[in-house]
Amino acid sequence: MDFDRLCEAMRRLALEAGDAIMEIYQSPEMDVSFKSDASPVTAADLAADRIISDGLRAAFPEIPLVTEEQAATHGALLGDFLIVDPLDGTKEFVQRRGDFTVNIAFVRDGTPIRGVVYAPAKERLFYTNAVGDSVEEDGTRDSSRVGLSLPIRVAEPDNRSLRVVASKSHRDQATEAYVARYQVADFKSAGSSLKFCLVASGEADLYPRLGRTMEWDTAAGQAVLLGAGGRVVRFDDHTPLGYGKPGYENPFFIAHAPGVALKFG
C-alpha cells in the first residue's frame, strides 16, 4: 500500500465531502427520510457517500470498500479494506448542532491503521499521516493544499481527576453508572466520532460507549486515537476492538489514554 497516496486521497475526499455537507447544512430546508432501522438519512449523507466512494474506487479499485450507505458493500471481508461513514452524527446534523463528522479509514488485519475524521461545521480536521502518526491540521481547508499539521498525543491522565467524554445523543443510565466508578473532574458531551479525537488530542482521557455502534462509526476515530498513542478495547474483557466482524456491529467498548486504570463493567 502506498500510504502517502492513500492518506492524501482520504484527506482530500473528506474535505470535498465536507463541502457538500455544509452546502446542504446551510440551506433553509433539509429533507430527512428514514432507513429500515429508523435511523435518519439526508441528502447530505448520500452526496458525501457518492463523493467518497467514487473517489476511493477510482484511486484504489483493488481494495474492497465498505460504506454505511451502500448495503451491497456489507458482505464479509478479510484482509485489507476501506470503511466509510460519510456523515456520522446525522441526528446532530438534522438538529443543526454541528457535532457531525466525515469518516474514512483503512483496515489491515482487523485494525484501522489509517483514518481521517473531519468535522466541517467545527472546522476541525484530524487524520493519520503516511507513517501512521496522528495530526490535527490547522489553517487551510483547501482539499488541494495541505495546511500546517500539528502532531497530537493522548494525555498522561491523573486517575484521581479524570476527564470523560460521552455521547451527546446516546448518554444513558448505564454509561452514568459506569463513569461513576471513576474519580471524574470533568464530564463533557460530544457527538459522533469527535469523542475519539478529543481523547487523541489530550482533551479527554476516557470515552466509554455502552450502546450500539457499527464499524463505520468507529474505524476512523479509532485509527486517529491509535496514531496518537491511545487504545480502544472491548468493554467486556478489555481486549482490542477488532474489525471485519460479521454484520459489522461492535460490542460495547472503551476508548482511553493508556494511563487510565480501567474498571470492568
From TrEMBL:
Family matches, as InterPro entries: CysQ, CysQ/Inositol_MonoPase, Inositol_monophosphatase-like, Inositol_monophosphatase_CS
Lineage, opening ranks: Bacteria, Pseudomonadati, Pseudomonadota, Alphaproteobacteria, Rhodobacterales
Family statement drawn from the similarity comment of this UniProt entry: Belongs to the inositol monophosphatase superfamily. CysQ family.
Organism: Rubellimicrobium rubrum
S-adenosyl-L-methionine found in the keyword field: no
EC number: 3.1.3.7
Keywords linked to the UniProt accession: Cell inner membrane, Cell membrane, Hydrolase, Magnesium, Membrane, Metal-binding
Keyword Endoplasmic reticulum appears in the UniProt entry: no
Topology in the lipid bilayer: Peripheral membrane protein
Function per UniProt: Converts adenosine-3',5'-bisphosphate (PAP) to AMP.
Gene3D superfamilies linked: 3.40.190.80, Fructose-1,6-Bisphosphatase, subunit A, domain 1
Binding-site residues for substrate, renumbered to this chain: 68, 87-90, 217
Chief location: membrane
Cofactor: Mg(2+)
Name of this chain's protein: 3'(2'),5'-bisphosphate nucleotidase CysQ
An annotated GO BP: sulfate assimilation
Subcellular localization(s) per the UniProt record: Cell inner membrane
UniProt-annotated binding residues for Mg(2+) 2: 85, 88, 217
PANTHER family on file: 3'(2'),5'-BISPHOSPHATE NUCLEOTIDASE 1 (PTHR43028)
Amino-acid positions noted as binding Mg(2+) 1 in the UniProt annotation, renumbered to this chain: 68, 85, 87-88, 217
GO molecular function: 3'(2'),5'-bisphosphate nucleotidase activity; magnesium ion binding
GO CC terms in record: plasma membrane
Top-level taxon: Bacteria
Catalysed reactions, semicolon-separated: adenosine 3',5'-bisphosphate + H2O = AMP + phosphate
